[in-house]
């Protein structure tokens, strides 16, 4: 059961594939930029999908692109699909499907992989058109700027695009992806290498934030959204469950100040669901809990995140 639940909890992305069915873009003209045409399916627990939800709420894109969340626990006996509710019959209110795989198969009838979030869905056809976290983030940050709320800072300014993409690579490669990789190690050396990569990068960000309010100055840009989401999960789950325990987040004065400041922003706070994060990574599925590894811990003290 343990190996099965670990696999289920870590599987956000589908198997590598040469298909571009789920990588359609706005910037190439493949997808029309049209309000009320798309729905983002995300997971409140997911470090890859949550940044997109925050981005949409922060910029005001949530007024022209709707979003819906999958149920945070796997259904008993089904570790290869996501459901839209607690029961097998619960539907997404807009898409009218009960499982995310149904929307994948609308796009590709031969789809036989584990459906993943994020998934951007064409509401008119019910088809998943893109499931790449990185692509969706960048596409919404650039192609949809004309729909941003007037007073929101530009989260992807043209003159900082190279710096933004470089920071994104650091966050994805050295922070966000490490917890999943570390769960698959088969040696002490492999664990230590990944842990060092993770904490070396946190040290780097700690130093950078000693001179900056946010990663690129005095206002939020796209990399801040990505880093914040990973820091939350590090504090709440990965320090404990993934043995990334060299230092706690609050032992980094600059990173902790930064993470808490981000959390006070409405879009960041409302899309940070501590309970769903803990439930997903510990309990994993709605099967009865019969072992300590699936017990949801009481801590850490989440009031620390408030000012």
Automatic annotation (TrEMBL):
UniProt-listed InterPro entries: Glutathione-S-Trfase_C-like, Glutathione-S-Trfase_C_sf, GST_Omega/GSH
UniProt keyword annotation of rRNA-binding present: no
Domain GST C-terminal: 142-292
MF annotations from Gene Ontology: glutathione transferase activity
Alphabetized UniProt keyword annotations: Transferase
Source domain of life: Bacteria
Gene3D superfamilies: 1.20.1050.10, Glutaredoxin
GO cellular component, one term: cytoplasm
Pfam families xref list: GST_C_2 (PF13410)
Stated name of the protein: Glutathione S-transferase domain protein
Organism: Lentilactobacillus diolivorans DSM 14421
